[in-house]
What we know:
Elements: H1 3-6, E1 8-11, E2 19-22, H2 24-27, H3 30-44, E3 51-55, H4 58-70, E4 74-79, E5 87-94, E6 97-104, E7 113-121, H5 125-136, E8 140-149, E9 163-169
Parallel strand pairs: 3-4, 3-7, 7-8, 8-9
Antiparallel strand pairs: 1-2, 4-6, 5-6
Helix pairs in contact: 3-4
Protein name: Adenine phosphoribosyltransferase
GO molecular function: adenine binding; adenine phosphoribosyltransferase activity; AMP binding
Subunit structure: Homodimer.
Amino acid sequence: MDLKNLIRTIPDFPKPGIQFKDIESITEHPEAFSHVVERFSEAMEAHDIDKIVALDARGFLFGGALGLRQKLPIVMARKKGKLGGDCVAETYALEYGSAEVELQKTAIKSGEKVMIIDDLLATGGTAAAAAALVNQVGGDVTLFAFVIELDGLNGRAQLGDVDTVALVSF
């Protein structure tokens, strides 16, 4: 399936000069959405994943579907102030600003192997921040998964030597 042709580009969003890659065009097509989940399932086969950490908010879509398919727990890494309970937080840079992501301290147990999933890998800041949180609570990130990778922003360099899969590159 040619996912690249399904992905819409929205110019100048969220600010001038940004070419936003819209994955809603994938979620609007059940066959394409299913294809993405299947490809991520295949990527997981080489890893003994205990939990999936899905990034706020579009990562929740793919993480939820994948967790259901794989019968694995889903942990949400959310924007600051969106999680209750005792949380750890990490600030990171975006390609157009900065943000903070949080994870509940009890969401991951020491030694658990974790997959981090999101819709897009750009500069790698969000995913690297989520990995720092997983490590902080004792987990081990063994796989990153993204629908889209923006090649020119070198996001993979922020992720270290952890296996990384992206289904489409721009």
